[in-house]
Q: What sequence folds into this?
């Protein structure tokens, strides 16, 4: 009998933010496919689960997913597509021999996660395979909790966008929604600070770096940030409302 493929959200860093379901499935799966953003780097998802899930005896396959822009209306970059296919094929061979396979992914799988692209590629190649998505605590919720600022109340609307969007798009979003969560800010910090200043929104913006991880930082004055020191795990919440 075929095994099952699980894409499992493992939260933003603190292992205590793993769900009971994530823990049970990660403990039960014989094989883990773990994503990493740099060829010679470590997998953050693996680091998060290490202290909570016994890994001895499990097969752990680390796969490098290049960090390149993905446009939903365009064909993927060939390197990125190759990584999705590599991961999907590794999964298919294990599933066909009856193993359950888990793909732990940072935060929640529904939000900019490599796990979903792998799952979609897998289903294109082998539509009969059973796949299950397990939600996790997103960095978005974790950052909001860390700074004690709600994301939406009452009739508020919220947008979640990559900070790498161009200024025109970002300006539209910033002027439409009461709360805007900017992800992937680390490489475009200077431009974002300038834009928020021009829009009169700097005082409403807070940056959270590495929430629920070692060296967590909460930064209220975005002009004090040295962009070259900013970690990839950095998110800005812009909330125009005062509460
Ligand atoms: C590829 S997205 C993955 C989001 C993830 N699926 C989630 O639900 O949190 C990566 C972005 O998430 C945000 N992020 C992830 N972990 C974070 C953390 N611990 N603290 C702050 N931001 C984080 C950053 O904006 C980072 O650039």
A:
């Amino acid at each position: 009998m075929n095994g099952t493929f699980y894409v499992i959200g493992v939260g933003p860093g603190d292992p205590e933010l793993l769900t009971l379901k994530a823990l049970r499935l990660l403990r039960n799966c014989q094989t883990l496919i773990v994503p990493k953003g740099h060829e010679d780097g470590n997998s953050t998802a693996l680091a998060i689960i290490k202290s909570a899930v016994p890994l001895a005896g499990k097969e752990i396959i680390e796969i490098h997913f290049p960090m390149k822009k993905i446009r939903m209306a365009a064909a993927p970059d060939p390197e990125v597509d190759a990584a999705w296919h590599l991961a999907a094929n590794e999964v298919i061979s294990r599933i066909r021999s009856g193993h359950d396979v888990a793909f732990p992914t940072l935060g929640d799988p529904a939000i900019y996660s490599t796990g979903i692209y792998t799952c979609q590629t897998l289903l294109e190649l082998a539509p009969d395979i059973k796949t299950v998505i397990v939600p996790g605590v997103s960095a978005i919720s974790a950052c909001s909790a860390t700074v004690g600022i709600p994301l939406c109340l009452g009739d508020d609307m919220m947008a979640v966008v990559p900070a790498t969007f161009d200024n025109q798009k970002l300006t539209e979003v910033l002027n439409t929604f009461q709360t805007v969560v900017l992800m992937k800010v680390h490489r475009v910090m200077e431009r974002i600070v300038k834009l928020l200043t021009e829009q009169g929104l700097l005082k409403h913006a807070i940056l959270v770096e590495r929430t629920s991880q070692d060296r967590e930082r909460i930064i209220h004055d975005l002009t004090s940030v040295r962009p070259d020191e900013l970690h990839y795990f950095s998110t800005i919440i812009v909330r125009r409302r005062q509460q």
